[in-house]
Amino acid sequence: MSGSRKPKTFKLRALHSQQKFGIAGRSCQEVLRKGCQRFQVPVPGSRLCLWEDGAELTADCFWSVPDNAELVLLTEGQAWQGCEWRAWRCPRTDGFCLSPLVADVSDISRFLSVFHRPHVGVIQAARQLLADEQAPLRQKLLADLLHTVSENIVAETRAEDPPWFEGLEARFRNKSAYLRFSCASRIRTYLREVSSHASAVGAQAREEYTRAVDAMAQKLRAAQYNGSYFDRSTKAGGRLCTPEGWFSCQGPFDMADCASRHSINPYGSRESRVLFSTWNLDHIIEKKRTVIPALAEAVGEPAGRQVDWEYFYSLLFTRDNLKLVHVACHKKTTHRLRCDPRRIYRPQAKLTRRKAVRKRP
């Protein structure tokens, strides 16, 4: 009877493998034999299971399994309990469907697409689950999920996202303006620290120190205290975020990047805005331990040279020496880095000697 039937087709994979192959056969043994040949494993001890639920494929149920069903080839000693499932939004029906949680890259992409433009049903379901959940780990996962899908990143004005502006002064009418102000406030704090150090500088050098600080302050005012670093509406190169407002941790001072891949979008929600305030603009060459004392020492020992205040400006207030880091990546140990001695003073102009002209006899 089976010999007159059309061969059944399956998609076959090995355990823990994402690569699938098409296999056809008129019996369970034929499919098993071809599968073992494809994956170069012995037939004795091997068996086939349905990838979805782990049920073993036998001769009794062979013809009842749908065409193109996914199978897992198991060798002796291996076991498969079936894949995990999740609900996802079907774009054609606007309803929810069940599909494997993690099967391959395409499945992960579909899974992530749920959160890119979340349906109200996803948010409601997560809230209901969170209300009834007791396990701490699942509570955290659900809370993080809700936080992510509830963010209103696209909104910019107070009218578009009133909750984002809770606790802020009425003068802030859009998110970019507040984040720009937030960054500028940090830079102003650095300037005050530099200015307050003047009292520790010797009386003879204090005037020169104050002159350098005033020059830096004037340049900062012209640059609006580099508030553009946090402003997503600023052109690329002038900001530390993407056009959507995503910031990535730049890693500790002694590393090229962040191993934990920390990221945040303070434009998304009030909670993200508050959490972003814990991120640090960390000086690679330390401000208090190194840069400010080096500036004070330079003005105290000029020896006829002119201090390059613009070099110190770049170390104190610009991304040349600042890294945006998650609080966990902010190392408070001594950095043991020094200012470049070749750049502390401006290059001195070389005097050109005029050759004496010999008088002809």
Name the overall outline: elongated
Secondary-structure element order, as H and E? EEHEEEEHHHHHEEHEHHE
Largest sheet, described in full? 4 strands, mixed
- Strand segment count: 10
Low-confidence stretches: 101-106
Number of domains: 3
- The separation of the N and C termini measures 128 Å
Structural class based on helices, strands and sheet pairing: alpha+beta
How much helicity do the residues have? 25-40%
**Helix run count:** 9
Radius of gyration, taken over Cα atoms and rounded to an integer in Å: 33 Å
Give the spatial strand order of the biggest sheet: 2-1-4-3
Average pLDDT taken over every residue: 86
Folded structure, characterized:
The chain is α+β, with helices and mostly antiparallel strands and 361 residues long. The chain has three domains: 73 residues, Ubiquitin-like (UB roll) (Roll), CATH 3.10.20; 65 residues, no CATH class; 155 residues, no CATH class. The protein is 34% helix and 12% strand. The chain has nine helices and ten strands. A four-stranded mixed beta sheet has the order 2-1-4-3, with helices on one face. A hairpin with a 6-residue loop joins β5 and β6. α8 runs antiparallel to α9. The longest helix is centred in the middle third of the chain and has 22 residues. The chain starts with 7 loop residues before the first strand and ends in a 36-residue tail after the last strand. About 2% of the residues have low confidence.
Question: What's the quick description here?
Answer:
With 361 residues, the chain is an alpha+beta fold. It has helices spanning 28-39, 105-116, 120-132, 136-149, 175-196, 203-222, 270-276, 287-300, 309-317, and strands spanning 8-14, 21-25, 47-50, 69-74, 85-89, 96-100, 247-248, 263-264, 280-283, 322-325. Helix content is 34%, strand content 12%.
